[in-house]
């Protein structure tokens, strides 16, 4: 999973908009290289949607991962950065906060077949579409579908405690780091019991569950690019392919092959 200090990705320009031309505005991007944006905020809701490739959105609260046919919902005013893998087909929707409804907090949502086709069709419309005509009605149906989209568990919360944050950032940079919580406690100058309690309180996950989710989310980009499951498993810290597949199924409900069907 790309860390906040990602250095091997090119910078992607952020569109300079004083305001949205319509309540719903779309951008199509075909990104050959792996790219990322600097941290930024804007006055509208953003939906970052991966048609192909994998998107990573980082905020102060955590990381959100969108493989194909998923999207990250980013509320207005939230500071964030977006990283994409190479050969990504990305669709960005910018939504007026009033039109977007009252949903709060970043989250990853599923893009079902109907919503996918609505996005595809909306992205073909002129920027200044007729809000009172068929195009405006299509935009309103798309907004309705986004508001009821199912949330999926492709996010990783970050703690606020500086000791835990240091630990989490180190694991983001090296997810195969196998140090135990006891070993981390010795490095951070806090007891294992304290770290265990803080982890659960600040992330809602145990240390073991948090690290497993980090590794599994980080594996999605390599799997989407077609790398061998054995190679991916070893690269993110698993001792065997079978252990990786079992953990993947436990987290996502399907095997890696079913998550990324041919």
Describe the structure.
The structure is a single chain. The protein has 262 residues and is α+β, with helices and mostly antiparallel strands. The protein folds into two domains: 10-152, Regulatory protein AraC (Jelly Rolls, Sandwich), CATH 2.60.120.280; 159-259, Orthogonal Bundle (Arc Repressor Mutant, subunit A). The chain is built from ten helices and twelve strands. It has helices at residues 97-100, 113-122, 134-147, 162-173, 181-188, 192-203, 207-224, 229-235, 241-252, 256-259, and strands spanning 10-11, 24-31, 35-36, 45-52, 55-58, 62-66, 70-74, 81-84, 88-95, 107-110, 151-152, 155-157. A hairpin with a 3-residue loop joins strand 5 and strand 6. Helix 2 runs antiparallel to helix 3 and helix 8 (229-235) crosses helix 9 (241-252). It is globular and about 65 Å long. Residues 3-7 have low confidence and may be disordered. Residues 165-262 form the HTH araC/xylS-type domain.
């Amino acid at each position: 999973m790309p860390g906040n200090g990602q250095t091997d990705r090119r910078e992607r320009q952020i569109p300079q908009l004083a305001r949205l031309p319509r309540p719903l505005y779309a951008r199509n991007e075909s990104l050959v290289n792996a790219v990322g944006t600097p941290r930024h905020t804007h006055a509208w809701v953003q939906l970052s949607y991966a048609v192909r490739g994998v998107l990573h959105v980082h905020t102060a609260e955590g990381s959100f991962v969108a493989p194909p046919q998923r999207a990250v919902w980013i509320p207005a005013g939230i500071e964030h950065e977006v990283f994409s893998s190479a050969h990504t087909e990305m669709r960005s929707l910018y939504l007026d906060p009033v039109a977007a409804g009252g949903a709060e907090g970043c989250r990853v949502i599923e893009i079902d077949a109907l919503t996918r086709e609505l996005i595809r069709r909306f992205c073909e419309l002129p920027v200044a579409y007729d809000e009172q005509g068929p195009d405006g009605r299509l935009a309103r149906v798309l907004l309705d579908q986004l508001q009821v989209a199912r949330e999926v568990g492709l996010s990783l919360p970050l703690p606020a405690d500086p000791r835990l944050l240091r630990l989490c950032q180190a694991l983001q940079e090296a997810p195969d780091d196998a140090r135990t919580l006891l070993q981390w406690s010795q490095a951070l100058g806090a007891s294992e019991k304290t770290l265990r309690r803080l982890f659960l309180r600040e992330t809602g996950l145990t240390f073991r569950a948090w690290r497993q989710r980090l590794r599994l989310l980080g594996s999605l980009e390599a799997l989407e690019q077609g790398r061998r499951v054995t190679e991916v498993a070893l690269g993110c810290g698993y001792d065997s392919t079978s252990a990786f597949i079992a953990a993947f199924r436990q987290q996502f409900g399907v095997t890696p092959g079913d998550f990324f069907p041919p």
